[in-house]
Amino acid sequence: MALRPTPDALRERAFAVLGDLVKGARILDLFAGTGAVGLEALSRGARAAVFVERHRKAAALINANIEALEADEAARVIVGSALSTVRALAARGERFGLVWADPPFERWEEGATALEKAAELLTEGGLACLECPAAAQWRGEALQVVRELAGGASRLLILRSR
Prior knowledge:
This protein is an alpha/beta fold. Helices cover about 35% and strands about 30% of the residues.
C-alpha cells in the first residue's frame, strides 16, 4: 500500500479557496489515505467527516489519527470502495457540503467516476474536489469545473453541480 498524501501547500490553498463552506459542513473524504483532508476540514470547523478507504491498514491509520486528535465524535471511517460507498450513502439519503476525492493517480478516472456519482450527495451550494494528475481532463456530466489549483504534478479541480 503506497500513500500519496495531498501536498500540504495544495491542501492549504484549497482550504483557503473553500473558506467558510467548510464551517459546519459534513465532509466526505474519498480515497482518504491518512485522513489528512478530512481531519483538516474538522480542524477548520466542519461538523463531521466520513472517511472512505478500501485498504484496511490505511483505515487503521485514519482511526489512529482521529483518536490522536480526539475527533472521535465527529468522524466515521468506512472500509470499502469509493463508488460502492457513495452508492450506499446516496441510498440512505446522506448529504455533504464537500466531497473530496484523492485517488491514486494511476486510477484517477475511478475517482472521477465516484465523484460524478457523489454529485447527488451534495447539499445545495456544496462543492466537490478531485485531486488528479496535472494532465488529466475532466469529462464529467453531473459536475462542472469552477476552479483549478495546480501543485507540481498534481492538479485540484473544484467542481459544483450543473
